[in-house]
Design brief:
Blueprint (H helix, E strand, L loop, with lengths): L15 H8 L2 H12 L5 E6 L2 E2 L8 E2 L2 E7 L2 E10 L7 H16 L12 E7 L10 E4 L2 E2 L2 E5 L4 E7 L9 H12 L5 H15 L1 H43 L4 H8 L3 H5 L2
Parallel strand pairs: 5-6, 6-10
Antiparallel strand pairs: 1-4, 2-3, 4-5, 7-10, 8-9
Helix pairs in contact: 1-5, 6-7
């Protein structure tokens, strides 16, 4: 069954497609990163909806907006911005995996570990992932018995709960989180975001890109369903093979009846 999608005109900044479109603009992403992280950023290059897979046998990921800092000494810090509307209880481990993939992509085989860059994984969420009633959670690796001692691996994970925007004391950050939660532009920065949203609502190229985006999602869902059916059939074959082995049938006979290889049967 084909999934029902919003029209382009109905999309808000909370929709992945619109978020990627808008925050792929350096002049929108950079001020937000500076306000949230309280760091100075000279220039960033937006990778956009980056696709990374270090090995075909490993899990494939699609970043929302990846930004790389550029300065006098070349590429510096790396930022990943994710608009995450659904929490399936796996975001902390997703953040861990994303950081690992980013590091693998950043560090060439001839480089030394000390060349790894400072890295930020940022999730923007409508709910409190950790249930502590806080608007922003910031994590870095610290020594268990002495929290003043940091590991110094330069990796940071930030989770913003934008439904609690009114608890943020920093006005610039509060304006951003309020906009994410309500679509109300209450500052020059958030009005600039809304102007881009309004532009994309009417832009013919965006309409075409959105059709392509929806087709891509449907293809991914079809592939996922096919993989699920194949794995289900494989699981049934393994169960059948176990029963046949328990009945004393030879591996050769079990292989012919189940469709499994002899190596697969021996591994049961």
């Amino acid at each position: 069954m084909t999934r029902k999608y919003k029209s382009v005109e109905e999309l808000t900044i909370r929709d992945n497609f619109m978020f990627v479109k808008v925050f792929s603009d350096e002049e929108i992403a950079k001020p937000f990163l500076k306000a949230l992280l309280k760091i100075d950023i000279e220039k960033i290059t937006i990778v956009g909806e980056a696709h990374l897979q270090t090995d075909p046998s490993k899990k494939y990921i699609r970043f929302d907006v990846m930004a790389k800092e550029e300065g006098a000494e070349g590429v510096g810090r790396v930022f990943d911005l994710e608009m995450q509307m659904v929490d399936r209880g796996e975001l902390p481990k997703r953040a861990r995996y994303y950081q690992g993939i980013c590091d693998t992509e950043t560090l060439a085989c001839s480089h030394k570990y000390k060349e790894l860059k400072e890295q930020y994984i940022i999730f923007l969420c409508p709910e409190d992932v950790f249930g502590r009633e806080r608007p922003i959670y910031e994590f870095e690796n610290r020594e268990k018995n002495d929290h003043s001692l940091t590991l110094g691996d330069l990796t940071y994970k930030i989770f913003c709960n934008f439904s609690k925007y009114d608890a943020v004391t920093d006005e610039s950050v509060r304006d951003y989180l309020k906009y994410f939660a309500t679509d109300e532009a209450t500052s020059e920065a958030t009005q600039k975001i809304q102007n881009q949203v309004d532009f994309y609502h009417k832009d013919p190229k965006t309409r075409s890109d959105y059709v392509t985006f929806k087709d891509m999602l449907e293809d991914e869902r079809d592939e996922g369903r096919a993989e699920g059916r194949a794995e289900g059939a494989k699981a049934k074959a393994r169960e059948m093979a176990k029963v046949m082995l328990a009945e004393g049938l030879s591996i050769d006979m079990v292989a012919k009846c189940s469709g499994l290889s002899e190596d697969e049967i021996k591994a049961l």
